[in-house]
Amino acid sequence: NAGVTQTPKFQVLKTGQSMTLQCAQDMNHNSMYWYRQDPGMGLRLIYYSASEGTTDKGEVPNGYNVSRLNKREFSLRLESAAPSQTSVYFCASSRLNTEAFFGQGTRLTVV
Amino acid sequence: GENVEQHPSTLSVQEGDSAVIKCTYSDSASNYFPWYKQELGKGPQLIIDIRSNVGEKKDQRIAVTLNKTAKHFSLHITETQPEDSAVYFCAAMGKLTFGQGTILTVHP
Fold this sequence. Notes:
The complex is a heterodimer.
Chain A: E1 4-7, E2 10-13, E3 19-25, E4 31-38, E5 42-49, E6 56-57, E7 64-68, E8 74-78, E9 87-94, E10 101-102, E11 106-110
Parallel strand pairs in A: 2-11
Antiparallel strand pairs in A: 1-3, 3-8, 4-5, 4-9, 5-6, 7-8, 9-10, 9-11
Chain B: E1 4-7, E2 10-14, E3 19-25, E4 32-38, E5 45-51, E6 56-59, E7 62-67, E8 72-77, E9 86-92, E10 97-98, E11 102-107
Parallel strand pairs in B: 2-11
Antiparallel strand pairs in B: 1-3, 3-8, 4-5, 4-9, 6-7, 7-8, 9-10, 9-11
């Protein structure tokens, strides 16, 4: 049972490049989340998906897009990376009002 | 949207002392309040949670209290140990919004 799997674990991008962070869960959870974590800022919600086919903006959605491809997968896309998007990104999944499980994170550096 | 405030941002205690972390939330519709512990280089992991129909919950050395009227909830760790040192986050669901985190350091 893998839980929540994120790929890649590390990535370096040049300003203006694009990339997609992948997330998959095998717990049959309806809800999935993308967060970014910066020093001293805690976990800030980028996008949220309550169920397959639905997505909703979180606190810091600008510069990102998401796709809930199916119940298992929730991807985060940076169309034109900026240095301000240097961060650690976490994907999570849960059932409603129950424990959320997190992936191991993706450390992204934009130079 | 939901806003969660967490205090203090850092907390330093001696081994064996108690530690208390406090959070407030803004959305009265929130009804699930988890606490997570994050160790260096890892994703957050749930340590305890409470639902809105309960005022207090305890699990060994860890307890959480909830005051829905005042919209605040707290984490209590008793008999702290060095391995309790980590970053702790409160959250409210809704959309699972997190507080800013508390760096807890337990000195031997």
